[in-house]
Amino acid sequence: MNTTVRLTERSGSTSSQRRKGFVPVVVYGAGSDTQSFTADAKALTEIIGKNPRAILKVELPGSGIKNAVIAEVQRQPLSRKLLHVDLHQIDMKAELVTKVAFHFTGDPVGVKDGGIQQVELYELDIRTLPDKLTATFDVDISSLNIGDQLLVSDLPKHEGWEVLTPEDTLILRIAPPAALEEPADSETAETAEPSAAADADEGKTEE
Question: What is the pTM for the complete model shown?
Answer without folding.
Answer: 0.71
